[in-house]
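does this look right to u?? guanine version
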Amino acid sequence: MIIDGKKTSQDILEELSEQIKKHQGSRAPCLAYILVGEYEASHLYVKRKVQACERVGINVKGNVFEESVCQKQILELIHGLNLDPTVDGILVQMPLPSHINAQQIVEAVSPQKDVDGFHPFNIGRLLLGYTPFFVPCTPLGIHELLMRSNIQVSHKNVVIMGRSNIVGKPLAALLMQKTSQTNATVTVVHSHTSNLEEITLNADVLITAMGSPELVKAHMVKKGAIVIDVGINRLHGKLVGDVDFKNVEPQASQITPVPGGVGPMTIAMLLSNTLKSYQMKAQLT
Ligand code: GUN
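got this back:
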């Protein structure tokens, strides 16, 4: 069975839109983004995020820089956005050019406007089991997709392929939390793992975030496993995941497609986090 991330994300956008309508009369929620350079995929992702914001009634403030921008210019912009009471969320699209210190940029964003959930304050809280202001959008989107598909991870072996700061590490922290909706037994594998297949074959839920086109084949997947594909890769001009979908689908009980799986859920969670930030502020004033 195919898990339809596109349909689930559209349901969430509808729900967000309804919630935002209830705030009519006061200012709309607002997301500010920072986009640096010409990297085509980043421009496409930001375009999709902006379209989704417009659909649900979130204002967008765009800040686009040329590749040559210096660290100080970005930091000054972020300091201004941190202080701007009309901005609820700040998104810095990754990756940044190599002359920019990305760690310093991420740390400059106020944790209370860090709707990507990348700030060490939020990641640290997630790891410690304290409530972070925001959980990173892709892990949150995967968890939401599993919940809305009635898939419980408690008592299950979840194998995550990939150890990135954006997906693998925070996803491991999220799914092993001590809550009835998480409580998974998590194993993380990566490019330097020996006996990869031995471990992936043990997965009840296999989540791939490696960025290797069609790396995962049927012989690596236990019969009846649930397969969640986070990869977005180009192969021979076609968009494909980390899973060889045609090959693996008969082996899996449920599987997400690429496109139309995790990608739209990431965007829905960005909007959800932005609304959360807006609502947190409204409660303060
Ligand atoms: N680059 C790849 N994924 C993401 C994401 O979720 N957020 C940001 N800001 N950049 C990314």
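The longest strand covers residues 30-36. idk if thats expected tbh
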